[in-house]
Model the fold of this input.
Amino acid sequence: MVAKPEDIIPQELARRLRFLPEATDEDRQAFLDAAAEFLAAADSAKLRKLSPVARVKWELVRERRLADLLTVIDFERVNPSAFPVRGRLRPYVAIPGVDSRSLPASVTRLRLREMPVRAKATEVLWQDGKIVVHGYAFVANLPNGPGALPRLAWLRAPGGRRIPVRFRAQESLRATRDSKQALHNYDNAGFEITIDPAKLKSRGKWKSGTWGLTLALPRPGGYVPGKAQRVDIGSAGHSQSRSLGDGARLIAGFHEDNFQLSIDIPEAEVTDQTATADALRLGLRSPAGGKRPTKLRVVRKGQQGGVEYPLIVQEAGDGDQRWARWGAEIPFGDLTVATEPTEKTQDFITHIEFADGSSRRATVLEGFLPGRYLRPGGREIAVTTDGPGLLKLHDRARQAVVDRMEWTREGVLLVEGSYTGPGDRKRFVLRHGERFEEHVLPLNWVDSESRFSVRIAPDRMASYDAVLPLRAGRWYFSLRDQDAWGNKGDVPVKLRADLIDTLPLKKRVAGRSYAVNRRYFDRLFLGSGPVLRGEERGAYRQRELRQVHTPAFKREPLTETVFYNSFGGKQFSDSPRAIYEEFVRRGVEVEHLWSVADAQVDLPPGVRPVEWHSREWYEALARSRYVVTNVGLGDWYERRDGQCVVQTWHGTPLKKIGADLLGTPKANLQYIASLPHRFRQFDFVVSPNAFTTPIMRNAFRCEGEILESGYPRNDIFHRPDREKIAQRVRATLGIPEGRKVVLYAPTWRDDQRHTASKFKLDLRVDLTAAREALSDDHVFLFRKHPKILDAIPGAGQGFVYDVSAYPDIAELYLITDVLITDYSSVLFDFAHSGRPMLFFTYDLEHYRDTLRGFYFDFTEKAPGPLIKTSAELIHAIRTAESVRRTYDEKYAAFVREFCEPSDGLATARVVDRMLEIGQARG
Done:
């Protein structure tokens, strides 16, 4: 691992500095003493390599200027990746509230490397014989640059002269958004660069060469150079080649992710491909009177040598005397090297050899038509090309290739293509590139033509009994067998190489933008755009909405509305839903607004959706008479006079939370210090039971009212229509009559991560064995925690049901005969049902002692068996009723301690208190 300048700071000192605002006066002085000892022995040269803000902090530590140090830390918390810069000629970091002139210039002065250019090419087009590059470029922390100096751009070959290119400024909200900071506005950083390839000629002729693109942006004291980097999709994520005429090719591409142009003058090119029954035929051309190609050399990637195939002179069918024509045959047997049908793609590299002993990589003529040829065992030989125009030969598993796409006027995407493998049992799969969520669509298959087609209505995707738009993100195309147990055997759907220029294929449907695009050159996906407008997206815009717009909203009158937030706008569920239904039952005359993230929540008639973190969302939060939430609202939020704000929370705690983590590595002192302010904004907090009330008081530093009403969400176990709800849920999920329902709802593991906030599925249940043992009379519902990604194997095959996206888990409880969980708070809710619970605690000691602490001895109080292995779990499911009888006494004690009150009146108590507060203030 590459060492960072910050590594010079001991970890314990760095942690103490991070949480210095939360430390006592005594601890602060102890830190300064320990830091002084460290700084006295530290290498000053290494300290100077710290980031600008870090240098300022440690200089203030050295000088024991505690007040200024706390000012810098507070600023950095709000702006973790940005700072103001001052100085017209000698730039320096200037933290608000700290006199930079009182610090050594060596600390505050910015080096050139500390003013890097951030530049991206977002689109590379070929228009009217010119390359047009769209993108953005800015100097970090210098949103406007000094004065009115222009931005410049030029091309330059190694050792060559500069070739100026046209640079036109444009607006780019994306530049500010991509900067991922809230301090600076870079909207003026957009550009359009137009490059005329004719400028690359030497004395009027094409010559081979490569030119890098340099951007020069103003900074204090001059200019700073930078490079336009690629993105990962579309025209600015891949190289592309164009014919310039006269036998020359232009390659617009990227070297080490930086944009560059190359001129290539091939002495020979591949023009076409055909085949006989047992051989691939390649046609070539070379300039008449030029170098004479003699053979092709084909070598398997990663190997040496290769096999040579002679080039035979061909008759010029088009009569064009400028070119000599050649042909070669490559037996398919030479290209068939895989030994297993599912073996990864085997690539071949092709060189053209010339009579003078020289050689070059084989490239293809613009417009080259790819081909595929069947081989035994589910394989095919693919003849295609890539961005730079190289000839690509592959021995690969048979793939689906799209050759036609279009949007209908109604917003339906039509996709057609060919697939050389059996397709009659395939389904079309849209798979989210980050969340791994899937939509499975029917595939139209014409066996006689080996062709498929599919219709995608992205604004009308089925989700249980609702219809929702595709979630924002990239949805990759695949084919999958109808009986596949997971996605391992999925067939990727790609675009035919000669159709690359047809992308992106865009359409706006029902207020949302969709676009078909590509990654990895030809891998197709459908991109679903965000719901938020450009002026609402990103850290900078969100800060404006909080700090500029919200105060203005608060000056407007309150509205007679109830604004609900369930799990950050992800669901119509939980206690907020129960409270909404009680308001409706009582006929209270208020408007109901529901926070919805990415338009992914289906709401009943009469409830108005408000997009999460939109301008309307901030307005609703500022102007609604009542606000009901089951999660935090952020330390920025402050209730206004006249509002009633209710925190229902979302679980009885088994795992330690909040301030009760003090003294453990999991404690976030900054968050804990903010808890009193956060919880002062709630008129009252809902507690589910007497056990939880004192925990809430301490863990959340809750100084106000705690209403021990029970959770409104658990009133569902007492509803007179609960059997009717259960019948509806079983029908919605398609559960066959007579099958018992097993619900598995585990929590996440802190040490099983994809990213800081997204967790891996730690699957220890042998679902194949479970199906063999239980599928005759059981179904297995699997509900992942919202933080967990990864697909569930076997889902959709009649035994395993992925119900992670089902809107409300409380409705699933009503149809569940046996609950399996681990340390999730679902156990406290399901205990209201009195039905059996099994605890798959294969990692109990590690989870309890290393990852999380518990509030009580789970091994003593668990109302069901603690199970270590999948085999034991399957046996326990089969014998669940006898297990339940064994744990009758523990179950009853558990219910007495954790499920009271439980009378179906929790929601009524909460709404009574809300209306009492609202009427007193209204």
About this structure: Residues 25-41 form the longest helix (17 residues). The mean pLDDT is 95. The longest strand covers residues 117-127. The two ends are 61 Å apart (CA to CA).
